[in-house]
Amino acid sequence: MNVEIITIGDELLIGQVVDTNSAWMAKALNDSGFKVVRKVTVGDVEEDILHAVGEARSRVQTVLLTGGLGPTRDDITLRSLCSYFDCSLQFSDEVYANIENIFGRKGRKMNELTRLQALVPDKAVVIQNAVGTAPSTWFEQDGVVLVSLPGVPAEMKWLMENEIIPRLNKRFNRDIFIRHRTSWVSGYTESALAQSLASFEDNLPDSVKLAYLPQPGIIRLRLSAYCKEERLAEELVEGLQKQLSQILGSNIIAEEDTGLEIVVGEKLRRCGLTLGTAESCTGGAIAALLTSVPGSSDYFRGSVVAYSNDVKKNVLHVAESDLQKYGAVSRQVVEQMAQGALTVTGCDYALATSGIAGPGGGSNEKPVGTVWIAVANRDTVISQEFYFTTLRDQNIQRAVSAALLMLLERLKADFPL
Asked: Between these two residues, 187 and 289, which has the higher pLDDT value?
């Protein structure tokens, strides 16, 4: 069944807030067998909301709206829906009681604006929100379902998981089963990978699609099967995944849609190893990413953010003579940083980064985007120079990915199984 998502809010259109809701909703719907065919964002303008709703209802069986259900004047979603469905807002004692209960649990006092959130369309089925004050509303007309959801991510997610998706599953018979398998591939550019897989793609059945999703240092390959039988969809992606593994071999670093930090962490845990970092240009971004994983304390020891040369010298014991002779962005310095991290954190392996993230600080010899990365253990240290972009954020992101990939390759070489 096809679904369209409409996100509402001026803040989304001007870039003040990033729309994470539609991405989460699309994944949750897809995992449940619903196909999201379009995502649309409109501002807090009634005419635009009405137009988007009308267009969506002409295309799909289910329309999901998120945003604009708050208590302030710019939240006009329900008023707009009342205009579209020719109904009016009525006070709901049941919704009000739920709001009172939520405020009571939080020890907060209600005001008149909060009370207004108990006004709901009289032609809609009201779905209580257990984690917030704005309820969800379910309209059904001419065989098309339209559901409004809060824009607050935690509230939207609770309602989707506990109410909306279960209700959609009951309302519509599933006509298609969707299965995805994602492989993480390193060592290829996108075009080179496409060339290597040309024959594989030519022989894919019509019910399967292959997507290339590049990111710094990695390409995610997603196989998607759309079948009328669940068993067939699962068998298709499993069989094709095995073919990819045979073609790409060790260039596949993961066979699930996960993060590089998780792949590295799992490898460290399996091998019983610990890691530390010494970061200059990445400013602790590697450590932050690794420790975002629950249970990372099993393998991550700590980090030194050595942004200044004084910290490199006094904490990591980088030789001042090397800093003077070669500069902070050099093989000599980054290797000593990695070795210093081994000592300071007491880890088995260490990562170090030193570079010019930009936008200033570059030179003809070392332009912006130049980054040295080192991986060390108690016996050896290896390093590599990279040239990324002129954009600071991209340089940091790419350095983080490159460092983790270097570490992973080293771990795979030292511990093949």
From this structure: 289
